[in-house]
Amino acid sequence: MGSKVSKQLERRKAISTEKKTLCDLNGSCRQDFPGSDYRPSDRKNWMAGLNPEKLHINQIVWPGTHDSATNKIGFPFVTRPFAQCQSLSIYQQLVRGTRALDIRIQEDRKVCHGILLTYSVDVVINDVKKFLSETQSEIIILEIRTEFGHQDPPDFDKYLEEQLGEFLIHQDDHVFGKTIAELLPKRVICIWKPSKSPQPKAGGPLWSAGYLKDNWIDTDLPSTKFDSNLKHLSEQASVSSRKFFYRVENTVTPQADNPVLCVKPVTRRIHGYARLFIAQCVSKGCADRLQIFSTDFIDEDFVDACVGFTHGRVEGKA
Questions:
Q1: d(CA 52, CA 160)
Q2: Which 8-state DSSP code applies to residue 288?
Q3: pLDDT tier at 286, thresholds 50, 70, 90
Q4: How many CA atoms are closer than 13 Å to the CA of 186, on its beta-carbon side?
Q5: At what angle do helices 300-314 and 274-283 cross, to 10 degrees?
Q6: Residue 206 domain-assigned (yes or no)
Q7: Are 212 and 143 in contact (CB under 8 A)?
Q8: What is the pLDDT of residues 85-117, one digit of tens each?
Q9: How many domains is the chain partitioned into structurally?
């Protein structure tokens, strides 16, 4: 018992130290970067505002959400605080400016996070289609994967093609060098990551798992996550030569050996440092690798930071 208490005290001290490390870095470093002062006049149509004829797919810093469809996961005030990573619906996230979604499902086509379930994936698809019907030039990266420990839903690839067929941008390496205008009226890059079912085929309407990569660091230590994100990003090729999407997640996650297990107070340890991260990417010479940048509980400033840096790239400043 005593060793367990001692270990928890050490963990709390480590968290406190790392929170101070990030806070001190934030106070001592500039947070400006090319486009940092840019604010989209309409977040719902921010890609349209950057000129679809000029904006290339590989120039975009995609504001993304982690565990996107968890706004109604589990039971309120009981299990929800342990698994909820977003408070907004998929439609509300897209209106706010989110353009990369992370959806986890299980065998019954219900969205899940670990063992906890929420609504059917139909809700996600309908929200996506509603948003697409109200906009003209916004491209979405829709990642759907079978959650770890679950089985693939039967014929799910056919379901996605039936539901989104008219919007699907087919798997093609040339997409990365194209402008948004060159891809329209197609609007969705749908990456399907099954557990055991065959991967989508080259040239088909769905994209295979290798087209969206990341280096997930499972920790609740904010400075450790921040520094690891920078390290792994620096090891990637530039977006101008890369033929896959690479994601960095501005999140930290609850750990079983720490008494704080609710998502929001844990992820808050890093949430406010998105602008600092982009500025550090510029300072350390790896800003040309930044692509999908995701977060828990996405807000307007996070979107504005991603859109602003995208604007800096379009203007040739980044």
A1: 26
A2: G
A3: very high
A4: 17
A5: 30
A6: yes
A7: yes
A8: 999 999 999 999 999 999 999 999 999 999 999
A9: 1
